[in-house]
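Dear colleague,

Following up on Tuesday's group meeting, I ran the structure prediction for the two-component complex that the binding team flagged. I've pasted the input sequences exactly as they went in, so you can double-check that nothing got truncated or mislabelled along the way. The structure tokens for the whole assembly follow below. Feel free to forward this to whoever is handling the docking comparison.

Inputs:
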Amino acid sequence: MQQKVPWDPTFEESVSQFEEQAIAAQVHVESLHPFDRELFSTQLREQLGGFYADIQKGYEILVNTVMDLSAEGVGLAGMEPAGKLSMKTVKHLFPSQEALDKFTQDENYADRWMEEGKPLYELLGLTTQAIATMYEAACHLLDTDKDEASRCGFRLLLVLAPHMADFWMGYGVSLIRLKKLEEAISSLERAVSLDPNSVQALLLLCRALAEAGRKSEAEAKLSTRLDEAARTADQQLYDLLESARFELSKFAGTV
Amino acid sequence: MSIPISGQPDAVPKKIPELPSEHKALLGRRVSWVKGKLPEEEKKPEKVELAHISHVVGQSGPIARVAATAVIIGAHRAKKQAAERSGEGVLGQHSVKKKEPGEV
């Protein structure tokens, strides 16, 4: 479904550049099999529009969740208890003015920043504490079964810090719940590649694979990890994986 | 938690503060594959997206600017909402004047 994209000249300019690059890449890949350029362009713009809308929505959702949690006195890290909203805490969730000035004054600033391999949250002047608070808010949404909201929140977090395996895991979980299994598998594979020692990421990936009807792939991944646990004589991990394999063997879900 | 810096293998990993233990366990508690039951209802695969845009955000290029712009606009809207809820102005940057009855 196409999502309404607010008009923004910077967005339009960036999308146009990205579109040209994507089409050029597609032409290169499919040089022997010409593709429908117009359809590809339309799909790409729709997808970018959804991406853009998700991030904006995710930002609002996470900030509002932090405020809700504060008001209810649940207390996230750094929040004041029992309904007293700490504006200082909320303020640190927003980009710094200094970073925004650099971003808006130099059109190549973002590109140079990313070329250096730096995450977007640093470019925007967000602190690591702000990211940690947003992550907690996204986890809270997941914990309270607000799956679509948590998906938007985790997508924003991934944009800000795409190297965090935990964020890919959270995004994957929300996608599993929303039955977007192929996307979930892709996200969880990313989580596993970023943190190969994470058993939780592996088990979630296996679950997504099983639900998508790819049970044999899940079994193969578990077996590989079981062999490693046996080699290193890690009894606790072995037992955990063995119980997972047992559950998987009983799983009869089909696509 | 550490953030490996893409393309800079020798760089010192950036640290994000550890979460309180009760929140750290949140994700695991909800989604434990071993302890949880797999849903039994029939599953249908979703159409795979044309490209996983979010996967390329970590790379350079115009998409980074698309993402950053979206974050800034989202932040601006969230900031206004937060200010309206708190009644403290736009978080100290400027005040939100309450309109009197009849005032345009």
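Chain A touches chain B through 103 residues (CB under 8 Å).

Cheers,
M.
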